[in-house]
C-alpha cells in the first residue's frame, strides 16, 4: 500500500476528465486552473455544496467490468492505525467486505474523478454512503465487492447536513448485504476496524484497526473558501487512520457488525472542532449506523423534508462563495442564472421570501426544490443596484 499525504486533495489535480457527453443543455463554466495540494476543498455550488470530505479523486481511472464470477476476496492491513489485541481485523474484514462497494464518480462540471465506498442495504442494490462521496457527480459507477460486478448507479436522495446519501444500482439482484449492528451499544475503548477503499485504488478492501476514543462528537467541515459549511454531530471518534476513499465505508466492531459509516477523515479539506481547533490526521470519525440507517429509510420511503432531498438536484447555475452572503464567482453559460442576467461579482440576497446570508443557506434552500421549479431570485450587482427575476431551476450534478 503506498503512503498518502494527508494534505493531498487529488480532486484539484490537473488531470483531464474522461470523455463524456454534455449532461446539461448548456456548457459548463470555464474554471481557473486547478491547484495542487490545497489545504481546503474547492467548492462548486452550482448551487449545490460540493463537500467532498474524505472522498478522493483518482487520476486516469479505468472503470471496467470486473469478473462476473464471485471473486476470492483478500485483504491487506497497512500501518494505518492502532493495532488491537482484542480484534481479529482479517476475520472482521472477511465478514463485512462482501457487503461493501467501491463508488467511482465523474465530476462533469469541474472535470476529474473521485472515489469512495458504500454499504449495501438491500439485495436489489440500495447502497448507503456519504453525501460528499457523490457530491458533484454527473456519473456514478459502483463495483460490488461481493460479486465483482460493476453497475451504473443513481442517487435516490440525500441529507446534506447529515452527510448521508442512498444510491440505487441499476439491474442489481442477489447482492450480499452488510451485517448491521447497534451503535447505541458502542462504548469508549471498544476495538473497531475501518473498512473501505483507502486511496481510491479499488480492489481488495483495506483495513484500519483502532479503538473508539470518544462518542457524540461534533465537527465542522468547510470548503476552501469557507463559504459553505456543514455541522456534523453525534459522531463516533476513533484512532483508526481512516483515509481518503474510505468515506462511506464501514466502521465495524469485533464481531463483524457495522456500527458506523466512515466519514470526515482529514484529507485535503478543512475540519475543525466546535469551539476551535483542527482535527488531526490520526482522528477518524463515523456516523453511528442507527442514525445513518434512520435517514436512509426516510430517503428510501421517498419522504422529502427540509433536511432530506429526494431525486435529482436543482441548480440555478452559479458557483458561489465568500464568508458573508452568496457572492457569485462563476455563472454557467446558458443556465438559469445567466438567462436571468446574473454575473460574476453579484450577490444573491434572497430566494423568494427567504433572505440569503451565506452560501450554505442558499444551498440548503435549493435542496428543497427540484428541477423545473420556478423561484424568484433577488440579487445586488457590482454597482449596488438590486434586481429580481423569476428563474426555472435546471438539473445539475448530485448535491
UniProtKB/TrEMBL annotation:
GO terms for biological process: proteolysis. Keywords: Hydrolase, Membrane, Protease, Transmembrane, Transmembrane helix. Coiled coil: none annotated. Pfam families: PDZ_2, Trypsin_2. Residues 1-35 are annotated as: Disordered. The chain crosses the membrane at residues 41-63. Residues 305-360 form the PDZ domain. PROSITE patterns: PDZ. It comes from the Bacteria. SUPFAM superfamilies: PDZ domain-like, Trypsin-like serine proteases. One of its GO terms (molecular function) is serine-type endopeptidase activity. Residues 13-33 have a biased composition (Pro residues). InterPro entries: Chloro_Bact_Ser_Proteases, PDZ, PDZ_sf, Peptidase_S1_PA, Peptidase_S1C. This is S1-C subfamily serine protease.
